[in-house]
Amino acid sequence: MRWTRRGLLRLAAAGLSGLAGAAVGLRLWRARPLRGAERGVLDAAVDAVVPADEAPGALDLGIAAALAAEAEGDPRLRRLLREGVRWLEREARSVHGRGYAALGEEARTALLLAAAGRSGPPRRFFETLRREVLVRYYGDPGVWAAIGYRGPPQPRGYPRYWAPPDDA
Length: 168
Description:
single chain, mainly alpha, 66% helix, 0% strand
């Protein structure tokens, strides 16, 4: 078989179209929402950030579901959550011999703190998860009564934010 310049260009074009198809397939795979085991790990991590006590926990308020729903429309958040829950799962299996969601509260908290002490994706996952959970949790008016807070959070509710609240 004799190769011509035109034949090589056709072969290259066919290869590039195959690569483009593979890239689209990879992108669609990454675009899938958190489901199944990944969602279970996210639920357990959200619960570890604010577990239920006298007040409802973050999981009780649907914060994990809200984060997962937001991640469906935000590829960066989705990728970060996916990397974080996979890291937690790997570490849980490595350290404890079972999945993250099956661990007790103390072990789950310890793994989250381990993520906070790392660099890169585990730390970004921890910081994002903590921020998103706490903002949503303490922004919920239903939590205010449970913790004895009588007004909305800043910037609307407490103009003297630098001073402790008065009992009046």
